[in-house]
Amino acid sequence: MAAPEPPSQVRYENLPDPETDASLPVVTITDFASGEAGKEVILLVAGEHARELITSEIVFWLGKLLSGKDDELADWTAIQTATAQAWKRGWAKGTLKEWAEELLGKVIFKIIPIENIQGRKAVEGGDLCLRKTTAGVDLNRNWEYAWIKGEEGSDEYGGPKPFSEPEARIVKLIAESTRPQAFVNLHSGEYAVYVPWDSKKGLAPDLPTDINDVLENLDAYCQCMHGAAGDVAGYLAFGSSMDYMYEKLHVKYPLTVEVYGPDGLGKTAMGGHPRRKLQAAGNSTAAKLLGAAADGKDSNAGDAGSRAMLPGKLAGGHRNESALVERRRAQESGSAGVTLATNQQQQAFRVHAGMQGQQGTSSEAAAAAGADGADAASLGRCLRDYNPMETEEYEKVVATWLASLLVLADHLAQHPAATSAAADAEQGQLPLPPTPPSKQELAA
Ligand SMILES: [Zn+2]
User: Fold this and answer.
1) Residue tagged active-site, from 156, 190, 258, 395
2) Which of the chain's termini has less CB crowding within 10 Å, N or C?
3) Alpha helix locations (H) across 314-390?
4) ∠ CA 360-363-366 to the nearest 5 degrees?
5) Closest of 70, 116, 61, 96 to residue 357, by C-alpha
6) Has residue 418 been placed in a domain?
7) What is the CATH number of the domain that holds 55?
8) Each residue's pLDDT tens digit, 20-65
9) If you measure from the C-alpha of residue 55 to the centroid of ligand 1, how many angstroms do you get, rounded to a whole number?
10) pTM of whole model > 0.85?
11) Residue 69 sits in which domain range?
């Protein structure tokens, strides 16, 4: 059966890795009738860390909204609240759909819905705590800026060399060919909006003067920690895509957004992140805790991977490798089956398999593939620490980031930089954008 015709604002491509047979689906959304030249490009990467399922959910709904299919969204209370906020701030006059429609005349969205596809499949198969690729590499530590190899078994292993992983290479190629004005790397584990540096303390010196306006505007929805990652997050990340996009590709607005944290972790009202407070305190207890983190203890709170060791309830949920291995063995022999989440939670957590309309049943698959006893509890904790489990919270998170991404696109539309980037490209300083693929290619 032929694939259904995509909406006219949407094009699909499968971008190959030049070195292997891997490829990544990329979605381009704009008003193609008004052309692509001179438009601002916003590159969104979701699903980089396997267990952060909610990031792909957000871009799935964004795709629906941008292509005018907002029937379901319009009924959500959270969407109505987000819309009212946009009116109040003078960003929109009508619905989010109308706002989006207007923006597509000036902005191109390039979306990678799931960067870590194999990892995502493993999570759907029950490996709910998996952050890295199935090859064991953290894709957000594999970039050639301030790269360090790290420990192979650690959750932040940078790979044998920079760009050793096809996924990172493909994202780099997309960025090089599309020259985005904004790059947004979506993660979860806390609420935050970060700009460079990741790999050192301080705000990167060449960020545009209006970067604080962008952060403040995004905060209208997030109401969370925001600023230079190395300062605000309380940990450093080496070989990250955000630092690379800023330093090597001169992306004007390089952002990492942390879209969800359990119990409002990272929200301003919750006092930001305990990790940050510990570090700021600088006392011996804090030093001890952070020192323990450096020893490679795993924490599931935040996106820090192995860096942070947190007090109290946040310190739980260590990934149990041997139990995972055992469970995988059980899966292979088809004998596993303990429920991880309640049925209500499973129903509430609606997981979609990418943007091509297939509806997945990931949490059910995960539950069916589950493990026993403490391991099941730990796995369930991973699901909960990175993903909203109740319908109301899920809708709130999605609405928050749909509106935030429109705010960012709106800012780009009002402060165009694409024209100067195009001029640079003509002078041969930068690679030119590729020609759009043919309809046959898109349908493939
Ligand atoms: Zn992450």
Assistant:
1) 258
2) N
3) 321-332, 343-348, 362-368, 373-386
4) 110
5) 61
6) yes
7) 3.40.630.10
8) 999 999 999 999 999 999 999 999 999 999 999 999 999 999 999 9
9) 9
10) no
11) 10-311+389-422
